[in-house]
Write a structure and sequence with these properties.
Largest sheet: 6 strands, parallel
Oligomer: single chain
Strand content: 5-15%
Structural class: alpha/beta
Helix content: 40-55%
Distance between the termini: 20 Å
Strand order of the largest sheet: 3-2-1-4-5-6
């Protein structure tokens, strides 16, 4: 486990460390929520969806490595299904190289734009959420759906429920000390 390795490097016996200290912790500042309110206002102005009053999901479909990615077509299906239940805010950063899966990352974003125009509850916030705003957005979400990537650890640190999809690394290696997050991790080593 990554946390055990860190404690060993610091000279501690990992077996002596309580599980609560083997998971991330994050805190949002008042300013983070003020910036989130600006995002909420922009969404209200453009789409007439009040995310302050309606629970929403955050979906983070990107990973830097293709081995840790899910097909973009499948992501579009997941987003469409989730949007029948409540608004879905899709986040991510395209400023780094994104792997292509069954379709290119660009085709995925075009599909997302199409889905967003056809289905009112899909909100494209890709490249529009600085880290601290992303933290506040996740903190207020009903749940996050993510790969083994940064947004998952933000959700874990903020204690936002998360469903995580895993590639070649077993979830226990990174979130094994946190049953709340292990129980909602999906991993099939044969499929990776």
């Amino acid at each position: 486990n990554v946390y055990d390795a860190l404690y060993k490097l610091m000279g501690f016996d990992p077996d002596d460390i309580e599980p609560q200290w083997k998971r991330p912790k994050a805190v949002c500042a008042v300013e983070d929520f003020q910036h989130l309110d600006q995002l909420y206002k922009m969404i209200w102005d453009q789409r007439k969806i009040d995310l302050r009053r309606v629970g929403y999901y955050v979906v983070a479909p990107f990973s830097a490595a293709s081995i840790r990615s899910m097909s973009y077509t499948r992501w579009l299906q997941v987003i469409q299904t989730l949007a029948t239940r409540r608004p879905v805010v899709v986040v991510g950063n395209t400023r780094t190289k994104l792997p292509d899966t069954d379709i290119s990352a660009g085709a995925f974003i075009q599909g997302l734009v199409q889905l967003s125009s056809n289905q009112g509850g899909v909100l494209n916030a890709i490249d529009g959420t600085p880290l601290r705003v992303l933290m506040a957005l996740i903190a207020k979400a009903k749940a996050l759906i993510s790969l083994d990537s940064g947004p998952l650890y933000l959700a874990q640190g903020l204690r936002t429920p998360a469903i995580s999809l895993w590639g070649p690394v077993a979830p226990a290696a990174r979130i094994g000390y946190d049953r709340d997050y292990m129980d909602l991790s999906l991993w099939d080593s044969d499929a990776c």
